[in-house]
């Protein structure tokens, strides 16, 4: 403190006088905080929300008539949660977006410290992404990884628009603050490798994942799950395929993890906290931290869940509500 602050403290005649000195010197009396910093259980202002693929695809098609990837670099629609002035984060640690690329377009090459993964919704032959020089086809139903600080770009040499869902841990990086981003000079990266997609660690093909699910034991609720082994490439998130039979019901208790679920096939409904909504192929819904949720399938369905559970587990912060059954 400055000598003036010491003089002001000595001249204080009551606590209110002291509080004014504290505030001027960027100090807060722990017994006189404006708001609590500790609470008995997790709380979040993030809301359960859902987004519809049909609406997003229509909107991106419409936007595509007026702007190209040259104009915007990425033609994407961010699914944001209306928390304060937020217009980016889907849940506290993850952002999800729909993206579209038209025939003949490419999305310029860049890299960043955030990790990314992509669930391909609709793409014909000739659509691909390049990750550190590795050419990967973008096939409907596949999941592609883009680990942090890997150069990546997207191309459409086919005859139809291509659509996918991006999930990134950008909000987590924002909060920890190690964000770096760099554009590749010239915009195009050279293709140096064209591997067999089924042997590439950045590709999880739909058919292979269906085979893995068939080998997975059915749970008591009838669902089968297969969690991708991606920790060596993206250690911050868990990616899990969930297979549900027609008439299936999956109920999950509150946990400290935040989740985003995308629908690969089928239709049904979800109850997340107090919010209920219908879902079908390509739709997305989010489960913020400390929200119980239930998913019901009206037909055989395949869902993809992305959660921040690995980050919380590594830090010792993943907690399941002990008052609710597993």
Automatic annotation (TrEMBL):
Its EC number is 1.13.11.4. The keyword Hydrolase does not apply. InterPro entries: Cupin_2 (IPR013096), GDO-like (IPR047183), RmlC-like_jellyroll (IPR014710), RmlC_Cupin_sf (IPR011051). GO terms for molecular function: gentisate 1,2-dioxygenase activity. It is an enzyme of class 1 (oxidoreductase). SUPFAM superfamilies: RmlC-like cupins. It holds the Pfam family Cupin_2. Keywords: Dioxygenase, Oxidoreductase. The keyword Oxidoreductase applies. Residues 98-167 form the Cupin type-2 domain. It comes from the Bacteria. Gene3D superfamilies: Jelly Rolls. PANTHER family: 1,2-DIOXYGENASE PROTEIN-RELATED, CUPIN. This is Gentisate 1,2-dioxygenase. It comes from Xanthobacter agilis.
